[in-house]
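Session log. Operator J.P. requested a structure for one protein chain; no other inputs attached. Running the standard single-chain path with token output.
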Amino acid sequence: MRILPDYTFDDAPKPAIVVVPAQRADRQDDEWIRSMTTQSEVVMSVCTGADVLGDAGVLKGKKATTHHLFLR
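Structure written below.
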């Protein structure tokens, strides 16, 4: 299977909802995630995606949860 994206982070239409999946993200995504918190209706994560949101600094002062085996 071959996947060819139509857009990059730089030229994609602004999403209404951003879901950050369980992953080990590249720190280059942090700025994009921060910008989406002011441009999208919802920014959320699944499982260890909470670590990505935390690393991007968008969870400061907020409660979050993740899989118990990944607690820091």
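Operator note: Helices lie at 30-39, 49-55.
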